[in-house]
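[retry 2/3] DNA repair protein: previous attempt timed out, resubmitting with same input.
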Amino acid sequence: MPVKWNPSSHFVPARNSRHRTACLALYKALLTVAPKVRLPPDLVTAFGPRRHPIVHHVRAAFRRNRADTSPRLVYPALQAGYRLLALLSRTTTAPPTDESPSPSSPEHAAVEAFLRARLAERDKSKASQALHPPNSRNPPRPAREPRPGTRPLLVKTSPDPTPENPFPKPKYAVAHRPLPLAELGGTGRRQVPRLEMAMDFPFLRFTKPQPGVLSRVLHTKLKKRVERQATWTRMKDEDVLDAQEEDSWEQEVAKLQRAEKQPRRDGTAGDNDGMYAATIRDHGMGYIRDMLTKEREDSVARADAMRDLIKAETALQLKEKEERRLERLRKWTAKMEDRQGGNAGAKASPVKSHAATKGGLGAKFRSIL
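[retry 2/3] DNA repair protein: success.
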């Protein structure tokens, strides 16, 4: 008969009273012995004016291991705690020397070296946070103005508005790309950018990972478009219906006044049928529709300029690739001519003569091409 597993037979250290008693006893013993260790003045106040360095690390270690329930993790932690208790006990019993007020023993040197290593690690982490503010708890907001020396990728070349053409179509051109071969960084080989779309917003992907500035710009554009679409939908589904109800009310009031032959003191109800609904359609929904249309035309113009840039970059990439191939061929031809010229006056062996044959050179030539 197979033995069934009983959940109550599984040992959970945190639920065992003897385990809790042992951990609390070890914790109190470490906190009792730790303040008795004599340390240099620079280490005493390094982790806080009212906090002993060893007490601080003991509390942090117990707090870090408090959630451990596996015996595989609990046993090594307790063994390390008992070894630390023995080490601190030997450190406190070592007598100080005349040259140094702190005890001079291998145990004391080990404790001091450990604390100095932790202090150096903490200082390095704080220096890294100062150099990289986004990794801190309160990072500053990114600057909205462009970096000095930054050149825009696209330049708007649309004609100025005229009485004949008050709303010219947008048009863009690339100002400083493609870059010449001498200004290319990295491997020195041209990489053609890729045209990507983010909810109909075109952008070029040059490198990985995506720059944070580009992510913020796309997020702002997408958020604004979603808000406009949501506003247009709310006007169509809710505001227009409410306006129609208001127009119906105004028409009923106008009918009653005409029946009673009483002129209205104020307002223009009855003169313009559908005034409220028409206002929302023309000045609300129409305005948002015009904004979305202009945004769409601007995106199409930007995409056209980006496609022209990709075509120019691709043509230059193919041209530079052919130039590199011809340069490799020229160097290989010069190398073969020098080798054949050096072997012309010497007695050629069968192996060398075979390597210099037309078939061998042809195979090498084909491998290069």
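[retry 2/3] DNA repair protein: The chain has two domains: 9-135, 154-328.
[retry 2/3] clearing retry counter.
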